[in-house]
Automatic annotation (TrEMBL), chain A:
<dbReference type="Pfam" id="PF00528">
    <property type="entry name" value="BPD_transp_1"/>
</dbReference>
<feature type="transmembrane region" description="Helical">
    <location>
        <begin position="115"/>
        <end position="141"/>
    </location>
</feature>
<feature type="transmembrane region" description="Helical">
    <location>
        <begin position="176"/>
        <end position="202"/>
    </location>
</feature>
<keyword id="KW-1133">Transmembrane helix</keyword>
<feature type="transmembrane region" description="Helical">
    <location>
        <begin position="230"/>
        <end position="248"/>
    </location>
</feature>
<feature type="transmembrane region" description="Helical">
    <location>
        <begin position="15"/>
        <end position="33"/>
    </location>
</feature>
<comment type="similarity">
    <text>Belongs to the binding-protein-dependent transport system permease family.</text>
</comment>
UniProtKB/TrEMBL annotation, chain B:
<dbReference type="InterPro" id="IPR017871">
    <property type="entry name" value="ABC_transporter-like_CS"/>
</dbReference>
<dbReference type="GO" id="GO:0005524">
    <property type="term" value="F:ATP binding"/>
</dbReference>
<feature type="domain" description="ABC transporter">
    <location>
        <begin position="2"/>
        <end position="235"/>
    </location>
</feature>
<dbReference type="InterPro" id="IPR003439">
    <property type="entry name" value="ABC_transporter-like_ATP-bd"/>
</dbReference>
<keyword id="KW-0067">ATP-binding</keyword>
<dbReference type="InterPro" id="IPR050166">
    <property type="entry name" value="ABC_transporter_ATP-bind"/>
</dbReference>
<dbReference type="GO" id="GO:0016887">
    <property type="term" value="F:ATP hydrolysis activity"/>
</dbReference>
Automatic annotation (TrEMBL), chain C:
<feature type="transmembrane region" description="Helical">
    <location>
        <begin position="183"/>
        <end position="208"/>
    </location>
</feature>
<feature type="transmembrane region" description="Helical">
    <location>
        <begin position="65"/>
        <end position="85"/>
    </location>
</feature>
<dbReference type="GO" id="GO:0055085">
    <property type="term" value="P:transmembrane transport"/>
</dbReference>
<keyword id="KW-0813">Transport</keyword>
<dbReference type="GO" id="GO:0005886">
    <property type="term" value="C:plasma membrane"/>
</dbReference>
<dbReference type="InterPro" id="IPR035906">
    <property type="entry name" value="MetI-like_sf"/>
</dbReference>
<keyword id="KW-1003">Cell membrane</keyword>
Length: 268, 258, 259
C-alpha cells in the first residue's frame, strides 16, 4: 500500500516508461482476451502466436524479398513524386500567371482518390509494378506540390524587396530567397508524402498483386487463411511505416536544424 | 477581505528547487485598491496566481472573504496581462463577457443586461458584435475588464494588465480602472512593475523584495481620491512617494545582487 | 471588367484546353483501352443514372457518410480524452504511433475474415482508416490549447460541458479540421478498397466489374464518378470549414497585419 502509489508516481513521471507500459499492456491484453475466450482465437490469435509467426517469417527468404520489394517500390515512387512536386511547385509558384492558370486544375485533380485510378492503371499497364507506381506517385505528388506552392508564395515581401534593391539576379533570388523559404514547406510535404506513398505501395501490392511485396504476402496469407501470419505481416507493415515516419522526421530536423521557423500543419 | 498569511511557494523538485515566494503576509480590506510592485522577476505573477487559486501554495494561507482558497474562489475575477490570449477568439465580444455568467447559472435576460452594462462601463457600448481580434490591443483589454466587471466580483485581480499597450492607451486604461473601482466598489489588487502606475492608481502600494520574495514595505498613498493624469503626477507628494518606492526597489535589487 | 474577364479566363482556360485536347486526341482512337472521350461521355448517363444509382452509388454514399461520421466522432472523443490527460497520453502515445503507421488497407482482409463482407464491415473499414488523422490531430490540438485561456476558464469557474464545448473543442478546431480533411480523402479510398476486396455492390465494386468485364468506356466513366465524388466532397468540406474556422482565418489575418 505504501509502495504502490510511489511506483505509480515514478512511472507517471517518466513518459518513456509509461509508453512502454502501454505497448506491453496492449500486447498482454491481446494475449489474454483470446485465451479466456472473450475474443475468438480463430480470428484473434494471442500475441505469443503472432510473435511466433513473425519469427517464422523472419527466417523465410521470401519474406525478406517482399520487404525489399515494398521498400524499393516505395522509394522509387516517393522519389519521382518529390522531384516532380518540387520542380513543378517552384516553377508554377514563381510565375503568378501560371499559378492562376493552374489553380482550378490542381484543385480539381488533387481530391481525386488515387484508388479510383486503379482500374485504369491495370488496363493501361501490363506490368503490375507500373500500376502500383502510378497510384503511389499520384497520391504523394500532390502533398509535395501543394506544400511547395505555399512555400514559394510565402516569401517575405520585405526580403523580396531587399533582394530586388540589391539587384540580385533571378538565379540568386531563387537560391538565397525562394529556396530557403520553401525548404521547410517542402520537407513537410515530403514527410506527408512518405507516409501516403507507403500506404499506397502496400495497398497496390495487396489489390493488384504480381510484385514482391508485403501487401501481396498479406493477400497470400489471407487466401490460405494463415491468420497469425496475416497479423505478423500487418505488424511488419506497421514497423516499416514507423521506421519511415521516424526517418522522415529525423531528416526534416537535420535539414532544417539551421532554420528558425517551425512549420506546423494547419489549414492552408 | 483578502488575507495572505506567510505565503510561500517553491517550484521544481528533483534536486533543484526555486523559491519564488518566501514569506508574504498582507491584508487588503474590503473595497480597497492596493497595488503590488517589485523588481522584475520577483514572483508577482506567482503571488497573483496563488491568490486566484490557480496555484497551490507550498505553505501558508490565502483567504478570500474568510474562506481559505483551495481552487479559484467564488466572487473573484482576474484580468490577465495577455489580453490577446485571454479572450476567446471564436466568440464575439458580447459572448466572451457572457460565458462566465452562463457557467454561473444566470438567466438570459439578466446576462444581456450585465453584458450591456459592463460594455458601456468600459466605453465599448457598440462593440458587442465584433470579434476580439477585430479590436485594437487597448480595446481588447477593455473587453477583458468588462468581462471581469460583469462577473460582479468582490475581488478583482489584475496581472500587469497594461504592460503590453502603448503609453497613451495606458493612461486611458488607468483612469478607466479607477472609475470602475469607484463605481463598483470591489476590492482591487493590481500587480504592476511600473512604479508611477502603482502610486497613481493605489490607495496603498505594497513593495516586494527581489526573489525569494517577501514584503518590503506597505505604503499608504495619501493622495486625494480624485486623480488626474496631469495634475496628480505633477504634485509634489506624488513625486515624493514615487521616489521613495523607486529607492526601495533599487535597494531591493542591490541586496539581491550582493 | 477586363481584369475579371482575364481572371476567369485564366481559371477556366487550362481545364478547357485539357478537355478539348483530350477530346480531339482521343477522337479517332482505335485503342481498346483508351476509348474516345466522346464515347465515355456518351455511356455516362446510361451507366450512372436510374437503377445503378440506387443499387450501387447510393449504398456507397450511405456507407461513406456513416463511416466517415463515426470516424470523426470517435477520433474527436478519444482525442479529447487523450489530449487532456497527460498520463494517459504518455501511456498510449507510442502505441498510437505504431498503430497509425499500419497502412489501414492491410486490415481489410482481416476484417473481412472476422466479420464477413456485409455492410458493417464496409463501414468499419472506413472508420478504421479515417479515425487516425482525426484522433492524432485532436490530441495535438487539445494539448496545444492556450494556457492563458485555460487559466481564464479556471478562474471564471467555467467547467464541464460548457468548457468542453466553448473552449477545448473550439480551441482545437483548427487542428481537428486538418484531421477531418485528411480523414475524408482516406475514407473515400477506404470505401473503394472495402468494395474492391469484398462486396456485391457499390461504386468501387461496379468499376472493377466493368474492368473485369472489359466494358472499358463504362469503366472510364466510373473513374470519372469517383473523381467527381472526391472533388465534390472536398468542395463541400471547404464550405463547412469556412464556416467553422471563420474566426481562425480572421484572427490569423489580423495577426499578420500586425494588430
Amino acid at each position: 500500500m505504501t509502495t504502490s502509489p510511489l511506483t505509480l508516481r515514478r512511472a507517471g513521471d517518466s513518459p518513456a516508461l509509461l509508453g512502454l507500459l502501454g505497448i506491453v499492456g496492449f500486447g498482454a491484453l491481446l494475449e489474454i482476451l483470446p485465451r479466456v475466450g472473450v475474443l475468438k482465437e480463430e480470428y484473434f490469435p494471442p500475441t505469443s502466436k503472432i510473435i511466433a509467426a513473425l519469427i517464422d517469417e523472419l527466417g523465410r527468404g521470401g519474406f525478406w524479398q517482399a520487404v525489399i520489394g515494398t521498400v524499393s517500390t516505395w522509394l522509387i515512387g516517393l522519389s519521382i513524386a518529390v522531384v516532380a512536386g518540387i520542380v513543378l511547385g517552384i516553377v508554377i509558384g514563381s510565375v503568378p500567371a501560371l499559378r492562376l492558370a493552374t489553380a482550378s486544375t490542381i484543385e480539381f485533380l488533387r481530391p481525386i482518390p488515387s484508388v479510383a485510378l486503379l482500374p485504369l492503371a491495370i488496363v493501361l499497364f501490363s506490368a503490375p509494378i507500373r500500376s502500383i507506381l502510378l497510384l503511389v506517385v499520384y497520391a504523394s505528388f500532390w502533398q509535395v506540390l501543394i506544400q511547395v506552392l505555399h512555400g514559394v508564395t510565402d516569401v517575405d515581401p520585405v526580403a523580396r524587396e531587399t533582394a530586388a534593391s540589391y539587384r540580385l539576379n533571378r538565379w540568386r533570388q531563387a537560391r538565397y530567397l525562394v529556396w530557403p523559404t520553401t525548404l521547410p514547406y517542402a520537407m513537410t510535404g515530403i514527410r506527408l508524402a512518405a507516409s501516403v506513398a507507403l500506404v499506397l505501395t502496400i495497398t497496390g501490392e495487396l489489390l493488384i498483386g504480381g510484385t514482391k511485396g508485403i501487401g501481396e504476402e498479406i493477400a497470400v496469407a489471407q487466401s490460405s487463411i494463415a491468420v497469425p501470419s496475416m497479423y505478423a505481416l500487418i505488424v511488419v507493415s506497421g514497423l516499416i511505416g514507423l521506421i519511415a515516419n521516424l526517418a522522415t522526421r529525423r531528416a526534416e530536423r537535420l535539414v532544417l536544424a539551421w532554420h528558425p521557423s517551425v512549420r506546423r500543419e494547419l489549414p492552408l | 477581505m483578502l488575507e495572505i498569511k506567510s505565503l510561500r511557494k517553491t517550484y521544481g523538485g528533483q534536486g533543484r528547487t526555486v523559491e519564488a515566494l518566501r514569506d508574504i503576509t498582507l491584508t487588503v480590506e474590503d473595497g480597497q485598491f492596493v497595488c503590488v510592485v517589485g523588481p522584475s522577476g520577483c514572483g508577482k505573477t506567482t503571488l497573483l496566481r496563488c491568490l486566484g487559486g490557480l496555484l497551490t501554495p507550498t505553505s501558508g494561507e490565502v483567504k478570500v472573504a474568510g474562506q481559505t482558497v483551495t481552487g479559484p474562489p467564488d466572487g473573484l475575477a482576474i484580468v490577465f496581462q495577455e489580453y490577446g490570449r485571454s479572450l476567446f477568439p471564436w466568440l464575439r465580444v458580447a459572448e466572451n463577457i457572457e460565458l462566465p455568467l452562463k457557467s454561473k447559472g444566470i438567466g438570459r435576460a439578466e446576462r444581456r443586461k450585465l453584458v450591456d452594462e459592463s460594455l458601456s462601463a468600459v466605453g465599448l457600448g457598440d462593440a458587442g458584435k465584433a470579434y476580439p481580434w477585430q479590436l485594437s490591443g487597448g480595446m481588447q483589454q477593455r473587453v477583458a475588464i468588462a468581462r471581469a466587471i460583469a462577473f460582479q466580483p468582490k475581488v478583482m485581480l489584475m496581472d500587469e494588465p497594461f504592460a503590453a499597450v502603448d503609453a497613451q492607451t495606458r493612461a486611458d486604461l488607468e483612469d478607466l480602472v479607477r472609475t470602475v473601482w469607484q463605481r463598483f466598489g470591489m476590492t482591487m489588487l493590481f500587480v504592476t512593475h511600473d512604479i508611477d502606475e502603482a502610486v497613481y492608481l493605489g490607495q496603498r502600494v505594497v513593495v516586494l523584495s527581489a526573489s525569494p520574495t517577501s514584503v518590503l514595505e506597505n505604503l499608504d498613498i495619501d493622495l486625494s481620491d480624485e486623480r488626474d493624469q496631469l495634475k496628480t503626477r505633477s504634485e509634489a507628494r506624488f513625486v515624493e512617494l514615487r521616489t521613495h518606492v523607486y529607492a526601495r526597489i533599487q535597494e531591493a535589487k542591490g541586496v539581491a545582487a550582493r | 471588367m477586363t481584369r475579371v474577364l482575364s481572371r476567369t479566363g485564366l481559371l477556366l482556360g487550362l481545364p478547357v484546353v485539357l478537355l478539348v485536347t483530350w477530346w480531339f486526341a482521343s477522337a479517332g482512337s482505335k485503342s481498346f483501352y483508351q476509348p474516345p472521350l466522346e464515347t465515355i461521355i456518351k455511356v455516362f448517363p446510361d451507366t450512372w443514372t436510374g437503377a445503378r444509382f440506387k443499387s450501387d452509388v447510393f449504398p456507397s454514399l450511405i456507407r461513406l457518410f456513416i463511416g466517415y461520421s463515426l470516424a470523426v466522432l470517435l477520433g474527436i472523443t478519444l482525442g479529447v480524452l487523450i489530449g487532456a490527460n497527460r498520463r494517459l497520453r504518455a501511456l498510449v502515445e507510442p502505441l498510437l504511433e505504431f498503430l497509425r503507421a499500419i497502412p489501414p488497407p492491410v486490415l481489410v482482409p482481416i476484417l473481412i475474415l472476422i466479420a464477413g463482407i456485409g455492410n458493417p464491415t464496409k463501414v468499419l473499414v472506413i472508420v478504421i482508416g479515417g479515425v487516425w488523422p482525426v484522433l492524432l490531430n485532436t490530441v495535438e490540438g487539445v494539448r496545444g490549447v492556450d494556457e492563458v485561456l485555460s487559466d481564464t476558464c479556471r478562474s471564471y469557474r467555467i467547467g464541464g460541458w460548457l468548457r468542453l464545448r466553448t473552449f477545448i473543442l473550439r480551441a482545437a478546431s483548427p487542428q481537428i479540421v486538418v484531421g477531418a480533411r485528411q480523414a475524408l480523402s482516406i475514407s473515400i479510398i477506404m470505401m473503394v478498397i472495402g468494395e474492391l476486396l469484398g462486396a456485391t455492390n457499390g461504386l468501387g465494386y461496379t468499376v472493377v466489374e466493368f474492368q473485369r468485364g472489359f466494358q472499358i468506356p463504362e469503366m472510364w466513366s466510373g473513374v470519372f464518378v469517383l473523381g467527381l465524388l472526391g472533388v465534390l466532397l472536398s468542395l463541400a468540406f471547404t464550405l463547412v470549414e469556412r464556416r467553422v474556422l471563420n474566426w481562425y482565418h480572421g484572427a490569423r489575418a489580423a495577426e499578420r497585419s500586425g494588430h
